[in-house]
Amino acid sequence: MTNVKSYIKEHKQRFLNELIELLKIPSISADSAYKNDVLKTADDIKISLEKAGCDHVEICQTKGYPIVYGEKIIDKNLPTVLVYGHYDVQPPDPLDLWHSPPFEPVIKKTEIHPEGAIFARGACDDKGQMYMHVKAMEFMTRTNQLPCNVKFMIEGEEEVGSPNLAIFVKENQEKLKNDVILISDTGMIAPDVPSITTGLRGLSYVEVEVTGPNRDLHSGLYGGAVANPINVLSKMIASLHDENNHITIPGFYDKVEELSKEERAKMAKAPFNLEDYKKALDINAVYGEAGYTTNERNSIRPTLDVNGIWGGYIGEGAKTVIASKAYAKISMRLVPHQDWEEITQLFKTHFESIAPAGVTVKVKPHHGGQGYVTPIDSIGYQAASKAYHDTFGKTPIPQRSGGSIPIVSLFEQELKSKTILMGFGLDSDAIHSPNEHFGIFNYLKGIETIPLFYKYFTELSK
Amino acid sequence: MTNVKSYIKEHKQRFLNELIELLKIPSISADSAYKNDVLKTADDIKISLEKAGCDHVEICQTKGYPIVYGEKIIDKNLPTVLVYGHYDVQPPDPLDLWHSPPFEPVIKKTEIHPEGAIFARGACDDKGQMYMHVKAMEFMTRTNQLPCNVKFMIEGEEEVGSPNLAIFVKENQEKLKNDVILISDTGMIAPDVPSITTGLRGLSYVEVEVTGPNRDLHSGLYGGAVANPINVLSKMIASLHDENNHITIPGFYDKVEELSKEERAKMAKAPFNLEDYKKALDINAVYGEAGYTTNERNSIRPTLDVNGIWGGYIGEGAKTVIASKAYAKISMRLVPHQDWEEITQLFKTHFESIAPAGVTVKVKPHHGGQGYVTPIDSIGYQAASKAYHDTFGKTPIPQRSGGSIPIVSLFEQELKSKTILMGFGLDSDAIHSPNEHFGIFNYLKGIETIPLFYKYFTELSK
């Protein structure tokens, strides 16, 4: 693949400007107030795919937000790469912790990004990483170096659990037929330590509601005499972990994949410094399941975390009230072999069973997805490995991610092909957090590495 | 005391209209957004006291909201009654549970209020009950039947713990000098079961903050590996009660007044139906400290309730985040002899001590007050008892209330006089809750009963 470096150098400023324009649109799929922004983003993606040389670019309607599809078929006998990404973003709150408005992108240098990083919601997850593929496509088509067929499928509901993508995939198996799926929605270990994600955690996300008395009560007249939904919810949540931080839901661990000593020893070799980790988060100690390291806890072990809790008076000052209701959003990260629907049911049954007399409990499943593991001896993995080696000068490290891309296991099931996760973000890029950013170095390295994946995948497929 | 009934009959509509106008002003002391409304309410109270015949009515400035003072001194040799009340109200949220806007008063009949009740925030607590005294004063002055001296002290910070009233009282001991203090800010057992509150619970109100990582984190990348402030806060709150619902804070019960078998037996005689109680709250069971009845749990026993909790993502949909911070507002109702400042310190010390590694905890005391008990053999209690007997045809039952009026114990300490709590509201009037209301029967009965208290107190003081 020739002159990819010079092409990037020549068009660098435009590549940055185009991404910045995309980041200005608050495409928050979780909040219906931003509906028009999400739809506008889909339109812009369509235009950018056309400009990058895709044919038959279309906005495919779903029951929710549309999926943008585009393709370039140059020869039916050549392999086909299906690129998946998403154009929606996480809600930006808490807004007061952002140093610049989440949808007014700014470029700032940081210790880990000496060449500068773009600060904006979605910069890394996933607009920035998705757009690397659009620009890599542009390079390959404009320089006539596209070695195989390409299909793009960019959705707008990933941050709310892709409720409609599954249906779309099931109904369009022929259209989406491919030899490998390529996704950049994960991270790499460090700017100088490329890595390929070989495992993802599954997810079960639920919302719980605890109802006590039929109205808010005066805590003086009723305090101590009726079940307080907030106290009760706290007690119920607390009981979901034992003193070793094992999850107490009966059957929760039954299908958990136990890694061998060898596999765990291999994992332990990945560069990791606990002191730096604590320093970066400003915590005096890590916390988690007894018997596992930090890297194991956030990758090969399942978790249960409260993502949000609310009830009673949360305004300024004081109000002496016993709330009628208390709520929590709870998510469980799952590991390969744990079935998310089964786990959701186990949670529901258990949570309802531990409700004390005096309250009623509702568990509302939000969404979920299965975990995933990809073998490192596949053609796809090998092609990605060679591509990284060319651009970073070293062989990438295979790593398990604690994150979830529920759709990946569905792809395998429905499209019968493996997914290669070429992530260029860093854990410190603060995705899902205030001040999310994406390094310019990482962005351009991605655009440089992706075409090489196409090249090697085509060669190795012969 | 002649023709009080006929006077009320004649002016009933005006008495209702004047109260309704007062209830239209959202005097929410807890929320600074309503500052001007609180101040306007003070002005209106001043005018109403003047119209009722008070002299030297003034708006006394404090560091917070002003105290409205007014008096009528007819003879230095006659006893003096000091009337205390408050013109501020609780925040009305949750607004969506109100059947009519909280500051647009409406009159509706209910099962327990066949003559109708005024629905509005503050209708019962305390604008309605405070205004009974203003109208009773009007009757006594207009009909030349005022038997003694009267002083009014109406404050605007009761719902936020009266932070400035204590200073005002300390600095104005001569001005506030009195023989008995009269307050209507409590309830009665039933429309046909008058009662006088002889005990109040103390209060300690705190806000806690649990901080984990220095920013919100992606629950996939960090879940299971760092302390989640919401999970931790839930665990800490849960640990504040043991399996018998005893509070676990060391030293918490050391000074709790233990009632004798006889006293508890006497209490148990007060009319109470557990099934009706559960039905009214729509709960299948009561809940509370083992070894005590419902009426004991909410009156003679101390409590710890979470009044509000928040953290993480509480918006629409789902967000897979580990929050940096989680918060709770916690209040403890205290019984006589428990010192609120000591209890606040015990809470702070204990709560900070149970914080696990990986988080930092802040405890911010909001406000508090001491509990109170008044003897039933005092002249004040006897005068009130006779007044109720005249208007209700039966002797009122002495009862302990679970609520708190922190200022009462301070009055005794600073002004050396006892407080008589003549409450005309009902527990079902939903004070501090959506759809707060006050029965027209109760309102008018209060106006009818109060002048008789003045009469009997003056007679018994001779």
TrEMBL record, chains A, B:
<protein>
    <submittedName>
        <fullName>Dipeptidase</fullName>
        <ecNumber>3.4.13.-</ecNumber>
    </submittedName>
</protein>
<keyword id="KW-0645">Protease</keyword>
<dbReference type="InterPro" id="IPR051458">
    <property type="entry name" value="Cyt/Met_Dipeptidase"/>
</dbReference>
<dbReference type="GO" id="GO:0006508">
    <property type="term" value="P:proteolysis"/>
</dbReference>
<dbReference type="Pfam" id="PF01546">
    <property type="entry name" value="Peptidase_M20"/>
</dbReference>
<dbReference type="GO" id="GO:0016805">
    <property type="term" value="F:dipeptidase activity"/>
</dbReference>
<keyword id="KW-0224">Dipeptidase</keyword>
<keyword id="KW-0378">Hydrolase</keyword>
<dbReference type="InterPro" id="IPR002933">
    <property type="entry name" value="Peptidase_M20"/>
</dbReference>
<keyword id="KW-0479">Metal-binding</keyword>
<dbReference type="Pfam" id="PF07687">
    <property type="entry name" value="M20_dimer"/>
</dbReference>
<feature type="domain" description="Peptidase M20 dimerisation">
    <location>
        <begin position="199"/>
        <end position="357"/>
    </location>
</feature>
<dbReference type="InterPro" id="IPR011650">
    <property type="entry name" value="Peptidase_M20_dimer"/>
</dbReference>
<dbReference type="GO" id="GO:0046872">
    <property type="term" value="F:metal ion binding"/>
</dbReference>
